[in-house]
Specification:
Two copies of one chain form a homodimer. Chain A is of the alpha/beta class. In chain A, 37% of the residues lie in helices and 15% in strands. The radius of gyration of chain A is 21 Å and the shape is globular.
Chain lengths: 398, 398
């Protein structure tokens, strides 16, 4: 039988999805599974943006401009203006989710064999996009003791080789929830300037900042032509399934090159562009309710976690994730055990082992990522489960 | 200023889109431009499939399964069954357009540096996907004198090296409209069997066959695990902007590898999957009207072209394209001149120079591709323009 390519073999599986069969088994046994494992918000997609699709007058669902509809990009100019980011419509390419924006960035700015520095733990799918692009991810470790702050800039500097082309950050961060400070952003600007590197900034969670002030990479004045902004409406408007994102750059040569990748795949999804455009028209107050919900959940979740013996969870400033250190031998084993062998009040909890977010082997072994995309009542129930589980888990370490 | 990667520089521009600025200028001057240049059908998207999206009860537009909704894949099993192709739902991955299916195929089955043989002229975006995948396209020339039939199998055989991993066909063909015969498909089966190659089959135009019988690569019994079927609903239901396609294989190892690429980008567009699923429910008679329209247009277009002195256009069996040989020095120059310097009754015609579809330099210089995606009246007007243009074009060769 013909085999897949080495690239196909090398392509990593999703560390989040590998527990799915165990969750399905648990559900079959009648156990309620609290899903803290994936970043699929439970917040409703705003009805008005779905209505915009319903009411759109479409006779022929034709290819759009490869950069996305001009009307949408023009509206996005205003969205970014409100967010303190000055852009014009010809600096954006509407993409199929944030995923495609990341692929466009890697493909357009790096050649096969080039290196990109990413603070770990990081969003696991960056690995897959790096395999697709043939580039090498060089991790710099951020530490739970520091709340996953930017590692010392000297650590980043040590990783720079002649093959280094870019630094990638996710801000606020998935999986840590960390919100980079202005001062950290300025340090990143310095190092990108000094070594002439691209700064890739994945700002999927921009609207969900609870403490401190968000600084976009696009606001770094001295590296305006070195920044690639990767964006998505998935979390912002709870529209993950739409698959609409944006690749943004003020570097004309990079933009022109990225447009060739965009033209090859013809156009981003048409119906979802209508939704995205309508979302820009939502009133500013739209974000108040989801933000308040996430903030309240974060506070509850962090409090519950830190009240358990041996558990440590820093309080992150944004997104809707936390990483917690648990008194356990191995997060993969523990998360599987929770689904396979444990229940409390006929309930259990599904979390993502943090090891899958670290590039360096062995790190994150006693950490898990939790996404607070369930309501407070469910969070309480899930934490009751976790608390009981930690009392009886055979691989408990203290 | 930081520059794009070599890959970004090397990425080809769309040969079809480069004339767009000249067309825009012509329109500004008040000239009507007949668009025979791109494969964007003028046929309406079936209202019922758009209604399915309008009436869908969506509260949270969530990520779907990375392979696409199971309900959609199950329905597609029935669609393919009617088309004489036996599949199950776990052999399909719903993709973002046919484009993504092609990328998945190249990435999953070939490594960087590997070779794929493609009969030329071929769909120009294969070049872009090959650059993304780092693979090398090896062209085998099909000739207008033979109506762009499959080149002699000995020509393909001569191109095979230890790096050859696959042969790619588009059937019926874009840009030639050629429909491969059963006998040609069996020859392809033989050679793939003999050299243990993948057969990639882009069947975007499956439903539009006018003469002869369509044979899917999936019907080749002896290479069931070597075939990768790349499909799309773009042309089938005149829904190019939906961005829904499919990657299909019976090779379990290849499927599993492709699923990792699918998981990295999370899911295909959600709203458009609803549309795609509804399209499978259209009555069998749905295709009668568009097929009849395309057939009538093809007959008119080919007749008009062949009635012009020095013009030769074979009659293709499928899709909605023809390639014509014109008595001209250079198709690129001619097509630009038509937009820049010519009009007849205040009209002109936009076509795609065929050179962009050939990999071998210098081939197709006096050929153009025409897409019959405008009605007969407009085709007549466009051909009136072309006929007059050929009388006065300064680069006329006979």
């Amino acid at each position: 039988m013909l085999k897949p390519s080495h690239r196909g073999e090398e392509m990593p599986s999703s560390p989040i999805r590998k527990l799915v069969p165990f969750a399905e088994e648990a559900k079959k046994r009648g156990t309620k599974v609290h899903h803290l494992n994936i970043g699929q918000p439970d917040i409703e997609t705003p009805p008005s943006v779905l209505d915009a699709v319903r009411n759109a007058e479409v006779k022929i669902l034709a290819y759009s401009h490869s950069a996305g509809n001009a009307s949408y990009r023009n509206k996005l100019v205003k969205y970014y203006e409100k967010a303190g980011i000055e852009l014009n419509a010809d600096q954006m390419i509407i993409t199929t989710g944030g995923s495609e924006a990341i692929v466009f960035g890697m493909m357009t700015c790096l050649d096969a064999g080039d290196e990109i520095i990413i603070p770990e733990p990081f969003y696991a799918n960056y690995n897959g996009f790096a395999v697709m692009s043939g580039i090498k991810i060089v991790p710099v470790t951020s530490r739970i003791e520091n709340g996953f702050a930017l590692p010392p800039i000297s650590d980043l500097e040590k990783c720079i080789t002649p093959k280094t082309k870019a630094i990638l950050i996710c801000n606020p961060n998935n999986p840590t929830g960390y919100l980079y400070s202005k001062s950290e952003m300025l340090q990143l600007e310095d190092i990108c300037l000094k070594y002439n590197l691209f700064l890739f900034s994945d700002e999927a969670y921009r609207e969900f900042c609870y403490d401190g002030v968000f600084t976009s990479a696009m606001q770094l004045d001295r590296i305006q032509e070195q920044v690639i902004l990767m964006d998505t409406i998935s979390k912002r408007y709870s529209a993950c399934g739409a698959r609409i994102g944006a690749f943004i750059t003020k570097n004309k040569a990079v933009y022109d090159a990225a447009m060739k990748f965009a033209q090859a795949r013809l156009s981003p999804p048409g119906l979802a562009q209508i939704l995205g455009e309508a979302a820009v028209d939502l009133p500013d107050e739209y974000f108040n309710a989801p933000k308040a919900a996430y903030l309240s959940r974060r506070n509850l979740l962090v409090k519950r976690l830190n009240s358990m013996p041996g558990v440590f969870c820093p309080t992150p400033g944004g997104a809707f994730y936390v990483i917690a250190r648990l008194p356990i031998d191995d997060g993969d084993r523990f998360c599987q055990w929770l689904l396979e062998s444990f229940s409390f009040n006929n309930q259990t909890v599904m979390m993502a082992p943090a090891s899958g977010f670290y590039e360096t082997r062995g790190l994150g072994k006693n950490e898990v990522r939790l996404a607070y995309v369930i309501n407070n009542e469910e969070i309480d129930q899930a934490m009751d489960c976790l608390q009981e589980a930690l009392k009886v888990y055979p691989g408990k370490t203290n």
